[in-house]
Amino acid sequence: MKNILFFSSSIISALITWLIVPKIRDIGLRFNLIDYPDKRKQHITPIVRLGGIAIFLGFVISYLVLISLGNNYLTYPLLDKRIQIMLVGASLFFLIGLTDDLINLSAIKRLIIQFSIAAFIVSQGFVFKSINFSIFNQIINPIPLNESIGYVLTLIWIVGIINALNWIDGLDGLAAGISIISCIGFFILGLINNDLYSCFLSCITIGSCLGFLKYNKYPSIIVMGDGGSYFLGFIISWLGLLYNFNPNKVYNSTLFIGILFFILLFLGDMIFVILRRILSGKSPFFPDRNHLHHRLLRKGFNHKKTVQIMYLINILLVLIGILISLKF
Description:
Blueprint: H1 2-30, E1 34-35, E2 47-48, H2 51-69, H3 71-74, H4 81-103, H5 107-123, E3 130-131, E4 143-144, H6 147-168, H7 174-192, H8 196-216, H9 225-242, H10 255-279, H11 292-298, H12 303-325
Antiparallel strand pairs: 1-2, 3-4
Helix pairs in contact: 1-2, 1-8, 2-4, 2-8, 2-9, 4-5, 4-9, 5-6, 6-9, 6-10, 7-8, 7-9, 7-12, 8-9, 10-12, 11-12
């Protein structure tokens, strides 16, 4: 039954998102909610930037329906605190991203709001309490974190992943495809560690991205915008946090390093770009074309090939993360 639940969750969320995207695109065209080309963007024609609405609705609708139907298999009741905080956090990050899509908030305002939402999540008890650098089942004693350090680390974890995924969303199909690959990694870890809820959450996210990717692959007719990338970034950060709050205590000690590999492509890209800007005497928020996909394009790879290369890199990183997390 649980395998049917996982499969159906992906299919239903994909179908809902797939059906909603054309409606959202029509609304965007009608009200001129368009992302126009500029020197930093790859698309050369105006395009609707509200695809994140379809991803969000596809996820939430299927999530609420399926978790009610599959409650006996997930062992997470609908009113479980994990579910409540996840839905609130996901909704708030989606809304701030959507607001930016509509009225273009400054980088400082976005960061302040992002950290405020993350602070609310941390205040509910979802905080890193220790860090374990064990690898390939070579056990290293966990490093305990005091409350303040754990608080700050969790804030950086959530906000960092959200912005990293947002920054890598520069080519058709890139952010959605990267999210699918990373969530497949979380799904496999959930299977290995018998965490049905993480498997379920990963499957719904994968389905929503697949439904959107039908319209977002090159040449796309819609982009997810900040609403979509903020939402997906939060879900990925939340999946990482969940492994600190497993009630069954079945996880082995090597998961933290493994999970880092699931996000290494876009997190590493963001860190590289920020350091390069600072070393050049520019603001970390100064827009440029130094992301990995920009550099691959300058090497002569076309749009589709660049996306495929980045998919492949992420697949390899996720595989490494899974291997690191296995017990040998």
